[in-house]
Design a protein that fits this description.
mainly beta, Methylamine Dehydrogenase, Chain H, PQQ_b-propeller_rpt, single chain, globular, five-stranded antiparallel beta sheet, 3% helix, four-stranded antiparallel beta sheet, Outer membrane biogenesis protein BamB, disordered N terminus
Length: 428
Amino acid sequence: MFQRLRLCSRQGFMSLAWVCLASLPAFADDWPAWRGVEGNNHSAAGAEAPLKWNLQSGDNIAWKTPIPGRGHSTPVVVDDGIFLTTAQADAQTQSLIKFDRQSGRMIDQWVLHRGTLPANIHGNNSYASPTPAFDGEHLFVSFHTNDAIWLTKITTSGRVVWQNRVAAFEPKLFQFGYGASPIVENGLVIVAAEYDGPDSGLYALDARTGKPVWKVARPSNLNFASPIAATIVGQRQILLAGAEMFASYDPNTGKVIWSVDSTTEAICGTAVWDGRRVMVSGGNPASGTWCISGDGSNTELWSNRVKCYEQSLLAITNYVFAIADNGVAYCWRTEDGKEMWKERLFGGGISSSPTLVGDHLYIATEAGQVFVIKASPNRFEPIAENPTGDSIFATPVPVDGRLYLRTGVGAGANRQEYLVAVGRVSPN
């Protein structure tokens, strides 16, 4: 079910790999999964990223590499490589691609599924939307394919260790595709497969063997949210919102820690947290942002009607930032939901989630703009507006003193995706 695409001869590849390894700098940090090391979309302490650049002029652009096919997954940056998934509809393939971390050169492409793409997806979705997860040695890659969710364990050199069917995934009412990213937690790979069918659930597989460990049944309801692991009031929890509830699960057993009847039916964003409080936003059919006590008291603390449908929120200590579907940026106090400020950034259209680097927020829009604003609760303070192609759906990744961006240039049949490194030519 998987096939390796050879981009060069074995001898040539080995020689080139040796050159790359010999010149590879010491990387300061990685980005191993959706929303980074801590699952909160914060860069590592002390990390930096450029504030201004221009893709068209090449100003402050280290490199730009074409990506075959299309996808919305965020790059994963680990060891010597940058990894992302893609799908090529004409060839009916779903693949994992590896790029050289220093030069951006595409090293290899491994086809994991062929001829089994879903018959229908939403026009704003892709066949490669989930972001891979890395456990320090292997990548775990999920795809919606062959009417199911499939998970593949693969090495950073492209050797498939195992490939297992997690659950059926055959939505009937809304055939919009899939988007939830897997996470690795304490030797388990946790995958959400929520749809209007009998297999709807949250699944945990043994990372070593791929065998099922536990399953939590979820309501028969199409939902797109990714699970996320967080430590709240000293307890490790898996957070997941949607199906008109906000729930917390024990990572080792799947047992419900707490559940609150709140939110709405379909959630795309990933939950965020601040101390004892957890927050999420969504918009189908009801639009809103909700804050729940994460200490097990089963209490909704506050809510409002601001809609962040596909994009996640971003929390810092005592405050949470939101970029609404209509292009308005907000800051609320997490204690009581008090609005600290709001300001229009752009005309609307956003799928990418805001990323925190130091004291700056990076916000990418569907029109290809990346805004930089101060992550300040006191006032709205814009820093820069950077043209970066014509369309962005994936979330920016800040490592190596760079910002790695997946962007599209052109539209329709002429749209070409690129992986772009914003920043210095040689990371260190």
